Every structure is written in structure tokens, then in C-alpha cells.
Queue: 2 jobs
Job 1
Amino acid sequence: MGDSLITIVAIVLAAILMFVFPLMSMSDRTDDISQLTVKTATTEFVDNVRTTGRLSLADYSAFEQEIHATGNSYDIEMEVKVLDENPGKKTTQASSTKIGENVYYSMYTSQILETLNQGNAVLALKEGDMFSTSVRNTNTTLSQQLKNFFYTVAGNDTYTIAAEHGGYVTANGSGGN
Amino acid sequence: MMKYQYLAVVFVIIMLPISLVFSAYIGTQLDTLDLQISYDTKLDNATYDAIKAFQLNTVNSTTSDIVNSKIRDIEAAANSFFTSIATNFNMAGYNSDILQQYVPALVFTLYDGFYIYSPFENTLDEETRQQLQNNTSATYVGGERVTGLKPYIYYSCRYVQGTTDVVITYSLDNYVTIQGQANGKKINDAGYLLSNLTYNASSGTVTYRGVEISEEPALKEYIGNDSNGGQYTYIKINGVKYYRENDGTWFTITTSGTKQPQSESFNAYYNDFNDMGYRYYKEAYDFQNRIVNEYGLGSLTSANAVDQNGNPLTNIQDDEGNIIYNFMGANDRIFNFSDDIEEPDSDFNNHRIAVIRYVVENNLAVALANYNRVGTVTYEFAMPKLAEEDWDKILNNVCLISFLQGLSIGGKIYNGYSVINNNKNEEVVTENSIYIVQNRNNINSEYHRVTHTGLFDSVDNNSLGVFNVDFERKTFGSAQRETTFYYYPHYYLGCYTCYVAQTNTATGYSNIYDYLDSGSNKTLAKIYYTALGRERYSMYKVFRNPDDHIAQFRT
């Protein structure tokens, strides 16, 4: 009686140790690799937009494809802060010892994608604008599933793969051609 | 009975270390990559700071085109690069002096050539060395390692064809300088290359792409905190703006932002008119005639290009070894005026870009290789392969290329570069640097990109083409330099749909020339071409004799 109980416990323990442990370890590494890919891709994408002043549909699709190749689904959030120098000019006119204050207004992912998909295919930015992108995974990766199963530390909506990058646009881009 | 447990334990004993090592390895790789990305970004930011410093200095200085003041601006930009990179790297424990050893070169590509800022061994000649031997307070000592600008390198190329042996110096636009001997005749000439020009000698009218280019009303600008509060008429000659005072005298603005009266005045014609645009096209027409008829250079092709030893140039390859440009095989006729020479895909432009790339690539590789001799860091510095999109930036704009190599980032040694271009400076007037002001007489009028949808029909004779630098904020000091004032030369406002955000611009054309050709109403084309010509003609040119040039406007 006691023996068969121990046998069952032993089999369960052995199964966990021999299958689940390596599986968890491997899936953790997979996530690490995905993280590596996503981080590199995001930085490259943002820096390319920043230094050319152009965000094209082709670049965006290539970026999307690259991160999705890791086998996860991602939520990509982009933001362009458009520099409006016009209010600054008015301030300076009033008092020339003051540096005019610049105003930024934001365009978010849906607006950016709408512009890109409107046949324009290029969103041209100018020097002084800001561009940032943040990416996080939306599916539950294998490693998350296993962790949730065993020690339920992570809630369901948390993400393990995330990257963000942003900065000043350094050149005037031109749209159209 | 217990063998399952034993098996499992043995398995864990084998797997656990493997897993741990693997995890640590991946962790290190991640850290290395993190560091590399953060270094890339820091390098980008420092490079941007440097080019921004250059931009601000040139915009606020009327003498920025002249060589010694350009050197001053570039050295200031290099300083801001090191200050910025030291600030960025401070957290990692690097200061400016240490970092300087890891920067083999900063390359400033300018209008018709480039500067390399890098360390070199200051070799003094024997005579100077002896003179300085007993002088302990001398600034320079022989054999010392000095960081500074190396001599300016022009984008030039030598061509040999029969009895013709000339050197052509290219620039970021269609301006070329030709020096040497062509068909037995000595040449030293420079000018802009343009196709589609006609000139009527009897009426003196110049037509460019079907648009007659004529004089335009005199240009006006606001200056500083002047109590007049009004605009001043100005003309820009050889890169310097001369403003007309109400009493008829002329003055310039000094680098510190104060007025500098001029002893001589200009022809009364310039009180009301400006013919710089007309002169640009007329001189381009004359230059074309000289090249084709007088010098007989019309048949020069890319295959005639040779290096200093007379050997043909090697092909240009990308980082994967694909041939980008084949000098022998491309068969581009350089002065092919029937080929829309000013358009980006002309024979001339393909060849020009290849020459610029050839010159930059070769000189840079030498500079980086030489760094190993003077460098104090034990790392074999090598030229990284620049990506094609980076070459695109370098070949079309003023640019700063910075290199940072040899820093340890965990698993490997960092070897990075950054290319930041700038298209808002006094160095070059590109096709995209001209904006169109709807109504020049209305201070609240908007300015637009040329490609603003619907602009063809909304411009009229009151519209004006303005160089983008003239919209930049400038500084203006009081005589005692107590306060710095800020002002805009133009208070026109940027259009919200084509300048602030470019959501309403035309698409589907290959370049601005084609776009302007497509409109039936030629007013926009006339305003744009006049402004482009005016701004290019007003730029400082090394080739010109400044006194002779300005004298033309005095009589």
C-alpha cells in the first residue's frame, strides 16, 4: 500500500523533473531569445525612423514581420510627438528676450497607421519631432503558461517580452518620392 | 522500486548545471546586447548634438562659409561631440579624455568635400624642432599626439581622355569645378550644370523648363530687436547678407549680432529688385556653352575616371560584395545635357554620387587604419562596413559620421558608428530646402512645402520662395552684450498639413522637377525655380574672387 503510494509520488516527481523542468528551462530561454530579437528590432526600427525622418509602411511591415517571427503576437504602440514651432514665434514677437515655447502634439498608433495606409505609405517627420515605439507580447508564452500552472505568480495579462525605444528625429524627411 | 527517483536525480544532476550555464550565457548575451544598443543610442545622440551645434553656429554666423570660420565651427562641433558623449557615458565611468582614445575619427561631410577630425602625430620639420628645442612654453612639441582636423579633402576625380587631363570637383548639388587641360587648352572654371535652358540673346530672357526666369522684387527680413520694428531690404552675396538702412546705407550683422555699417553701397537697382535667380540660370547657360563648345568635354564618360596614378577606379561594392557602381562599365556621360542633368537619376548624378562615395570610403579607410599607429588603445581599429541607407544620407546632405570602437561590452568589443545628416544649414541648398510663402506681404501668411496639395492654384505673384534656414530663430546681442535677443527673420507660420505634420503632400512623383512639370499653372514653378536659383547663387563659393564678385553689384 505504502509502496505503491511512494511509487506514484516517485513517478509524478520523476515526470516533473524529467519533462517539465527541462521544458520550463527551454521555454524560458526561448523567451530570452525572443526578447533579444524584439529589443534589437525595435531599436533598429526607431533609430532608422529617427535618423531618416521617414516612417514608411514598408519599414513598419518589415519590423512587424521580424518580431512576429519569434512566434508570439505583439502589441506595437507608436507615438509621434509633432513639434509645432508656430506658437513660439508669436511669443517671441511679443518679447524678444524670451525664447519662444514650443508645443508638441501627439499622433498615436492608429492615426499613424491610418496615414500610412492612405496610399501615402510614408509619414514624413521633421527635425525636432519625437518618435517612440513600445512593444509587448499579447499571447501567453509557453514559459508563462508553465509558470502560471506551477506557482501562479504572474497574472494573466502580464507580459514577459517587452521593448521600448524613442528619441528625437534628427533629419527632415520628405514624403512622396 | 526507487530507480525512478534515482534516474530523476541523476537526470537533474546532469541537466541542472547545463541549464544554469546556458541561462547564464544567454543572460550575458542579453546584457552585451543591451549595452551595445545603449552605446549605439548614446553615439547617435552625441553625433546629433555635434551636428546640431554646427547647424546653430552656421545659422547664426554670416561668415560661416569662409574656411577659417568653418574650421572654428567644426572644431566647436567636435567639442560638443566629446562633451555630449562624456555626459552620456558618465554613468559607465568613462570621461571625455578616455573616450577620445576610442574615437578613431569624426567625419564632417560638407558641400564640396569633407574634414576628418582624428588624432595624428604632430611631426615638426627639423628647423622648427631646433627652434622650439629650448622653448619650454611652446604650444606644440614634435612627435606629440594631437587631435585635430586633417586637411580638407575635395570630392574630386581625375579624368584622362586623349589629350584631355582634368580634375572635376563635385558638390552636394549640381555645382562643379573643372581644372586642368582639355584638348590643349588650360581650364579653371566652375559653375552649375543645368539642362532645359534656353537663352534669347536679343531680349536677354532665360527660360528654364518652359518657365521664364526674371528678376523678383527685393527680399525683406526682420532683424533683431530693432526699434524700427520693420523689415530691411537685403541682398545676399557670396553667403553674406547686406541689409539696407532707411537712409540708403548698407550694413551687415556680425557674429555677435550687432550691426556693421558698410562703406560702399550697392547699385540702386537692388533697392527694389533682386536678380540672383536670373544670374544663376544665365550663368549656368554660359557654363554649359563653355563646356560643350569651348572645352569640348561633352564626350567625357565615367570610364575616363582615373586615380592619382592614372589607373582606372575600382568598383564600388556594398557590404555583401554586390557591385553598386562600375566606373568602367557604367558608361555615364558626365556632361550629358540632353539627359535632365539636374534630376537625381541622371548620368551626371549617378556618377557624381559614385565619385563622392569613392573618395569618402578610400580616405576614411586610410584614416582608420592609420589610427592604429597613433592610438593608445590595444585594439585593431578597422573601418566598419557602412550600410547602404547610411550612404544615402551621406551622399545627399551635410553629415557627421562618428566612429566609436574598442570599448569592452561584456562578451565582445564594441565597434559602432553613427551617421546623422542635417538638411537645415548654410552649406547646401537642396531641392527640399525651399518653402513657399503664400503672401509675402502678410506677416501671418503660411509657408508650405512645394508639394503641398493644391498649391499649384493657390500661389500668385505675391508668393515667395524662402530658404529653410531663414525660418530659424536667430540671436541678436545688444552692443554691450548684456542681453541676448531672439528673433525670427520671417514671422510667417508653418502650414499645419504640409510643414508641421506632412499629411497633405503630393505623392507618386519621382522628384520635384517632375512634380512641377506636371502642373499646368506655371506660377509655382516660376517662384520655386527663382528661389532655388537665387539661394544657390547667393551661397559662398571658394572659386569666386570675393572682391570681383561683389563689385558686379556695386556699379
Job 2
Amino acid sequence: MEKLLDMAKKVCDQAEIYYNEPNSSEVIFQKGELHDIESQFQSGMALRIIKDGKLGFSYTKNLINRDEFLQNALDSLKGGVKAEYSFPLTKDLPELNTYNPHIEEVTSEPMVENCQEIADEVLRKTDAELEVVGYKEVNTVRILNSKGTDVQTKIGTNGFWMSMVYPGGGAGLERVFDKKIPFSLSKKVLNKLIDLYNKSSKELSIKSGKMKVLFMPGSMYTLLWRLSSGTNAKSIFEDTSPIKNDIGKKIVSELITFYDDPLDDAATGARSFDDEGIATTRMNIIEKGVLRSFFYDLNYAQKLGVQSTGNGFRSSMWGGDPITITPSPHLSHPRIEIGDKYFEELVAMMDTGIILDGVMGAHSGNIPNGDYSVGVSPGLYVENGEIIGRVKDVMVAGNVYDTLKKVIAIENKLHSCWGGRMPALLCDSISVSSK
Amino acid sequence: MLQKLKKILQKADVDYADIRYEIKKNTFITLDGKELSNIGSTITDGYVVRILKNGGFTSVAFTKETDAEKALKTAEENAVLIGNTIEKPVKLAHVPIIKDTFIPELKDDPRDISIEEKLELLCHYNDIPLSHEKVAMTNMRYFEVTREKYFLSSEGTEIHEDLITTGIGGGITSKEGNLVQNVRIGAGGSDGFYTLRDLESKFEERTAIVVDLLKAEPVKAGSYTCILNQGLAGVFAHEAFGHFSEADIVESLPAMREKMKIGNELGSDVLSITDNATLPNQLGFYKYDDEGVAVRKVNLLTNGVLTSRLHSRRTAEEFGEPISGHCVAEDYRYAPIIRMGTIFIEPKEKTLEQLMAELGDGLYILDPKGGQTSGENFTFGAQYGFLVKNGKKDKMIRDINMSGNLYKTLKDITAVGNDLKLGKTGGCGKGQTNIRSCHGAPHILVKNVVIGGV
């Protein structure tokens, strides 16, 4: 890699190499039985070069021929993609605890045993159509650039994903649990979930109307995508954010503090630098309802005349292979600050309403404007503060900025979920439509 | 290349093994508004090995040739572990041994066109919406993906097939005050660059729609009778029905499998749905799947009755049904899974005017904006629509998201048009992305559609 960087330095003004080595394996249980084991040994490298204010880019899975790899990047300079920023010199990053060597002990066999235990317990106590996936990932990321930056991290994760589908209905309760160390799921956590499933198994019909909706962590990406779109430097630059001029203004309930916390190494996957080698920080996007900051990568920070906030990541809405994606502004570790209510207390506060445990169609609709209109998948129904069943063919709709004005209480715990770590959020008077 | 793969597989002591090596070439151009934000060409490659041993079936993906031995060893160990754990050993359906090289014929080969010309064309199209004062932003991309695939199995099948997919796609955003609206545009296909020429009128039409949307009214939440246009009905065929024709999905859901038994009457008798990836000159075209099985036409639903489904070799054996050649991977990073090829609702006799008259009062909704299924429930968005009063198009509406239940909706399709159209861009995410997922339909009339509104 050092050799490639030297070669690139000779023919360009600036160069950067991003290297990753994701190794993973997962065991998949269906209907209580081991169904498949899949493993991946991957590695890849992406090169960015800047010459005369223009960007060149290439990537490869196998660095067989350095000259050809560099030539691909040089060829793409001709396209004329503007790059008026400089790669950073990053040193003295905080040491984060992201990799515990014991993670290597998580081979297929213990994962199979753990998943079997989960499956046996769930199937003994419920009629759910169960899928359980146990996984282990170890990923190495290294970034070198011509300024002298050479940063590296190794991240280990052990996790379980499970889905308990109501028979015939298709929708189910989905959960993900992850840690930096080998673990098995506690019976207490599992039995809480089993209890939630059993309480909500009865199918009910309801009338359309406005009611309380409890957004569970599994449905929070619906709101997160829209908030991220509105506070992303790209939307600010392109003038497609409805809150472009609202820094310092109160835009949602004062209960909401929305922040990015890449340095939180109590959770999995902490990062002290972004995919451009910039040091990350904990940053409030919305603080007690007031819009504080947008988030930037190098490119959009330069265009907008500010500093990168360390949010340049090689990621897209759907994930994807990092080496193939150029960095763009991305909230890597979003969270909403926890409140003071246990989940059970939130349910008791609801009188009548829907627990939106998961959604369908979060990617449809007018994301830049903050609008959402999602199918419940599933939606648990609460009456007099008690879960009495679940509803089908029901949609929940609103606008993220309006919905977050209606927050009345927040759960006292963060849960791993798609896109970040979130608590459950109880909102009043949300539009619910049904047949 | 096949010789090299043979050498790798020789080391495996197994009941069945296959290996797929792929070279993937990407050419990409991205414009955000006037600004070029990404351009280039690049090549990546990698291997996927699948192994059946002692009744356990498993896969490993790897990129370095030097990891081949480790990968095979891991796959063998995992296969044995599965074999020792499960009650019913995995078997693969018998398939003919194939030795073939298939390089598709292209009209206007995109690889012969310079990246400068591609960029110029994309900029030319992109300028059409950008020249309108109400258009705030465009995000346009050109993509060209070549999969050069080499497949070899221990049974003796040896296939080299190339798939070349080209497309232009993106979004156009209009803005007035704080109101932001967007529409999508897409074109492309599997048989050459000609599909991307002469698209000016299409860009003009989409621009007019996104500008008109600024004046459209949000649809009121409720239950409506709707006419879905071809693009939207195609998404319905894919999302609401198609995924449950995939054997690996119903396999894991016993109650669903019971409902999806061959011979069950699921839909109204006007409804027939077919998957036919052998149709030439379509986005979804291919010859062999990533298990080395030739794809064939499958009549999934015939006059409302379930007649067949899509299979891999494993599920065909498990269900005791014929193989279909639908086990496809995104690329060298993945083992194949069951995917639709070109799925569509078969056309019937009615014209759009006749359907409108039959509708009377309701909604005419058009063009997909993403869809998703979860079990038998589905949700998808329409980019725009119109109120229909007395069989006539009335005011334009926006913010249309519909949801429904597969079985109810299949019965609620009461009329099917005569104007079948297949999509030019697809894309389906089921763990992996399938950029060739193609769907289509004629106009259809559906009762009791739940619209979420905002």
C-alpha cells in the first residue's frame, strides 16, 4: 500500500488509499432448524487522487497490478469531477476499545448452539414462524494519505438477529442484539420478547383516525432517514432541505436531542476517524428541540466554507460495498437521547394507540420534504394502556418535523437497530389509516 | 479460467461443489445538479464456492486466490456441521449437464462508446429539467455493469456467460417555498446502448410532472378503487405477488406455504401472472442462472389459480416441483438466491378508456416510488395520480402510498387492460441487489386500496 501511495504521489497533487478487510460468517436458523451457514473473506482497496483540483477514483478487490490500478484513477481525472479540498493530516486519535480478541472464539459451532437455544425457547412458548441469525464480523479499516495520515482500526462484532412472524400474517417482531464480545442472549430479554409476541398475537381491526403511536427502535429508521436528509450537508448545498435556514431555531419538541456519537465504544463499531481519515466527534444535530448543526464531509464542507465534522463515510442508504462508494456526508452513529420511561410505562401512557414495531415502505414517499407514509409491520394495538392484539392493513403517516413536535415521552434505553441506536419514542396524535 | 477453477475444486472432498468466478466491470457517472460528482470505470473480481457434504449445503465468498484453500476448508466444516445438525439432509434437484459459452449480442455496444460521449449525453438530458426555474435539483446517474461469469460444478457443468446492463436513472426535485416534490426517471436495458438514446421527450415529460406536483393536492387517507398504470401494476406483480412465488420465501413461512399451494385459487379469474426471463431484449433477460440451470418461462398464476413457482435446485427438490433456473446472485460477493427474472401481468382485452368508465369515481395512480413486502402485506408508493370523477381525470394528487394484503388484493383486481409494458429499469433488494429485476403489466383496476396519505 505504501508503495502504491508513493507511486500516486509522484503523478498527483494528493492521494488517499482506503483499505478494508471484512470477514464475516453467519448461521441461519429457520423454523427452529439450522438452515445455512455463510462465510465471507473479503478485502478491497479504493484510491482517490487529486490533481489540478480534479478528483480521480478507482477501486479493486485484488491489488494485482499497481500501475493499472493507478492508471484507472488517472483516467477518471479526465471526467473533471471538482475536488477543491485537501486530505487531512490526522494524528493522536483517541484509543477506542472496538476489538476483543475473544471474538475469534465465535466459530460456527457456538453460534449454532446459541441460536438453537433461542429457537427452542421461542418455539416452546409461541406459535411464531421463527428466523434466527447469529453472526460474527471482524473488519479492519486503514486509511493512508499523502499528507502523512496512516490510521487503522479493527472492529469485532458478535450479534443475533431474530424475527418472530405471526403465522400467515407475514409481519413479525424483529430484534437485533450485538456486542463486542462473545455472548448468548439472556433468557430475561428473550422472555420479554416472547411475552410481547404472545400479547399481540390476536388480529384486530380498527377505525382510521389520529392516535398515539409508539415508534419502536425497529421503525425509527423511517424518521432517521428523513432527519438525515434534512441535516445532510449535501441537501443544504443543493437547497433541498426544508430546514436549511433554521440553525438556532426550535424545530421539534424540547424532549428531542438528536446526536451522532462515533466515539461511544461501549457500543459496537465505534470509530475515531471517518472514511476520509478525519477525527470524529460527538455532535448534537438537534439539542433540546433546537437545530444546532448539519453534518459535513470534506467535499461539502469546502463547498459551504466550513470544516468537515468527520462525517465522510463510504455508505449509501442501502449500505453497499464501501470501496465502491465515494465518501459522502453520513451520520455513522446516530442516537436520540434517552428519556426517563420504561417501555411498560410508555405503553401504560398510551390509552389507545399503535406500537409501530416495524414498518414497510420507509423508502417510499417524499423523503427530502420529511414526509412518510408506512405500512405497519407489525403494528401492535393498545387499549387502556394494555397491548391487546395487532392490526393489519394499516398505515401510519406524517411529516418527521411535525411528528417530532408531538413527542410526549422517550424510553430510558438505547437499542441497536438499523441505522443507529435508538430508544422508543411516544408521539401523540399521529394519522393512522385503515380499511 | 475454467481450468483454474477446476484445479481449485479438485481439492474438495465433497458430495457436490460448484465455484463461480466473476469479473465485474463498472462504469459510472453521477451528476448532482450541474455538478459532476463521480465518474470512472473500475474492475473487481471474486469467487463463490458452494459445497454439499453429508447433507449440509453451504457457501463461502472470497476475493484472494490464495484464500481458496481456507475457503474450501471452512465450507466443508460448515457443511458437515449443518449435516450433523439437521434432520432432513439437503438434496439438489437433478439438472442437465451444460457446457456453453453465452455472450449476448448487443445493439450499440456500450463498451465501444467513450466515457466522454456517455457524460455528454447524460449532461444533455440533465439540462432538460435543470432549465426549468421550479426545478431545484437533479440527481442523475449513468451506470454500466458487466458481469463476466465463469461457473463450474463437480457434476461437469461449465458455463461462461456475460451480462451487460446499462441504464440512466435518477430523480428530479422541484421546490416552491418549503414544499419539495420529486419524481424518478429511468431508462436502460440488457441489450445495448441504443436504449439510452433519444430520451429528450421522456425528460421533458417527467419535468412537467414534477413541476405540476407543486400544485397538486395531498391525497386524503382512505380506501379507494384505483386504476394502476403499467409501471405501478408491475411493481404490484413483483412486490405483492412475485416474492411469494419465490420458494425460499414461502419455505420459511409454513402458514404462507400452505396458502401458496399449487392449485389454490388465489386471485380473480382475470388475473394471470408469468415470469419469463427468456424474453429477448428485456432488462430481465439471461440464459443460465448462477447454479448453471437454464432459465425457463414459468406460468405462476393462471386465471387466478396458482400454477407454478420459482426455484433453486435445493428448493425444487424440497418442494418436489420442477426446476426453473431462478437462482441468481448480485455478484461475486454472494451465493445465489431465488430471484424473479421478468415478471408481468398478462394483458387482457380492455382499453384504458374502458377501465376509466368502469372505475367511475376513484383514483388513477401512476409510476412506482419504491415498494416493500412483509409477509402477505405490502406497501408501495406512487409518484403521482389523479382523482377520477365519473370516469374522467380530475385534479392531480400527490403523497400517495398504498398498502394492502396480497390475498385480498389478488381477488380485488377486477379488470385488466390490454396495454402491457415492461419496465426499463428494475432493482430489487432481497439481501442482495438485483439490477436486472424486470417487471411489467397493463393498466389494472383494483378495489379497496388503502391509501395512507400524509
